[in-house]
Amino acid sequence: MACYPEKHEEAPNMESDIRYAKQKVEQGADYLVTQMFFDNEKYYAFVDRCRQEGITVPIIPGIKPIVFKNQLTVLPKIFRSDIPEEFATELRKCDTDEQVKAVGVEWCIAQCRDLIAHGVPSLHFYTLMASESVKQVAKSVY
After folding, report:
1. Across the strands, what pairs with 33?
2. 3-class secondary structure, 124
3. Burial of 64 (0-12, 13-18, 19+ CB in 10 A)
4. Rounded distance between C-alpha atoms, residue 46 and residue 15, angstroms
5. CA torsion 35→39→40→44, rounded to 10°?
6. Rounded Cα distance, 53 and 62, in Å
7. Most exposed of 4, 83, 94, 136 (fewest Cβ within 10 Å)?
8. CA gap 2, 21 in Å, rounded
9. pLDDT of residue 12
10. Could you report how far apart the first and last alpha carbons of the chain are, in Å?
């Protein structure tokens, strides 16, 4: 769960993400926005670790509905985001990108509802190639 760390030498992991997030807050950041993720439990664990490290600013979850089947493999590589097996299994069953889009919207709605129920400060939607899906999610969630 990255908070947009600058390039660094070590392999990125939660601890290095937290270290860079803490630096950003120490330098005046009023809030943090995470990279996209598909497993809310990882977000909750990240927030808990940040709080343990004294990071008290709001941490806004970054959400993206999957809309293309190839995103099942591309997004985890680019954004270090694991796709929960339950979600991945449903996506693999899809024959068309339209089916993928429907499954992605359904997952994203459930994800957002859970985040809201857990009192997140806000939601940040990554809309690139997914603006229609985000619109559907927003209509269902708000």
Report:
1. 60
2. strand
3. buried
4. 9
5. -70
6. 21
7. 4
8. 8
9. 58
10. 25
pLDDT at residue 21 in the model: 95
Tokens of 101: 């889009």
Residue type, 27: Q
Q: Helices 71-79 and 85-92, interaxial angle, to 10°?
A: 150
Q: 61 Cβ partners below 8 Å, 6+ apart?
A: 34, 37, 40, 43, 115, 120, 123, 124
* Tokens encoding 15: 């601890």
Would you tell me the crossing angle of helices 131-141 and 97-117 to the nearest 10 degrees? Answer: 40
Structure tokens, 82: 């694991």
Tell me which residues of the chain have a pLDDT lower than 70: 1-12
Q: Are 17 and 50 in contact (CB under 8 A)?
A: no
Helix (H) or strand (E) holding 63: strand 59-63
The one-letter amino acid code at 28 reads G
User: What values do phi and psi take at 34, rounded to 5?
Assistant: -80, 165
